[in-house]
Specification:
Layout lengths: L5 E6 L4 H15 L2 H12 L8 H15 L15 H18 L24 E4 L5 E4 L1 E4 L7 H4 L5 H9 L2 H14 L2 H15 L7 E2 L2 E4 L25 E6 L4 H14 L3
Parallel strand pairs: 1-7, 3-5, 4-6, 6-7
Antiparallel strand pairs: 2-3
Length: 267
């Protein structure tokens, strides 16, 4: 801890309960079971044949298998470039923001991708504090043995550079909030609209910076926080909540387990 800033490393295990929690996040990002079930039940009313709940659940499970990407060891695309590996860090960031920091996340880039299978543009994850402050979260995954890895503060598109680019750009923050409001689920729309209004009126609380770095087993060092550990004046009064997530194995293997479980979960 450093003043209002916190720097922590969390060790993940291959615990079934944790894998189930993360798989549920993935499942919800790709298949909203409740909304899909409601739509199918309503559609069934117009059919002559009887369609019971078990039949609808089976359709939902088949949809999940069809739309949730999997790591394919036979693919010509290397594992480290496949969708699950590239997305699992953001899934972990959603878990960190909601379960560890107790922030809310009104919408997700994964759920609302412009082009399926390709990285999304914009901030990785936008969160909200209970008092409507914006939480800016840049997410990176690294298997590099260097500490800190280049993705933290030396690369051109590093977490440090991207965070400051948004933190000190009011229009960028307003744009991110507007995107979040357009894509937010109904239960999150009011809180997101309130945050957008406060920022538009320049009456919003100070933003929080909450980077998430995902590390493969054996690669984390205390120096992984890089320049975030000694923030420059450009961060202003923004508190920093930096979380490193240390996996039990490789990023590819962990992603494969979580995404496979997501497709297997019954509706």
């Amino acid at each position: 801890m450093n003043g209002e800033h916190t720097y922590a490393c969390y060790d993940l295990t291959s615990d079934d309960n944790l894998v189930d929690e993360l798989a549920s996040i993935v499942r919800d990002l790709y298949v909203d079971d409740l909304a899909l079930s409601s739509a199918l039940v309503e559609a069934a009313k117009g059919l002559d044949s009887v369609c019971d709940e078990s039949a609808i659940a089976k359709v939902i499970d088949e949809v999940a298998i069809a739309v949730i990407p999997q790591v394919d060891p036979q693919s010509k695309v290397p594992k480290h470039l496949q969708v699950p590996r590239n997305e699992v860090a953001e899934v972990l960031a959603l878990y960190v923001l909601e379960q560890i920091h107790n922030f809310s996340v009104p919408s997700s880039r994964i759920r609302n991708k412009e082009v399926s299978g390709l990285p999304s543009r914009g901030l990785d994850v936008l969160g909200l504090t209970p008092n409507s402050a914006v939480v800016l979260t840049e997410v990176k995954a690294s298997s590099s043995t260097s500490s800190p890895p280049a993705v933290v503060h030396t690369a051109r598109d590093s977490m440090h550079a991207e965070t400051l680019r948004r933190l000190n750009n009011r229009e960028s923050v307003l744009g991110e909030l507007h995107w979040a409001l357009k894509h937010a689920k109904s239960e999150a729309r009011e809180a997101t609209a309130r945050a957008l209004l406060l920022h538009g009126l320049s009456k919003a609380p100070t933003p929080t910076v909450a980077p998430v770095l995902v590390r493969a087993a054996g690669t984390y060092k205390p120096s992984d926080f890089g320049n975030f550990a000694n923030p420059s004046k450009e961060f202003g009064q923004s508190p920093i909540r930096f979380a490193v997530i240390r996996l039990p194995g490789t990023l590819e293997d962990f992603a494969a387990v979580v995404y496979a479980r997501a497709a297997e979960q019954a509706a």
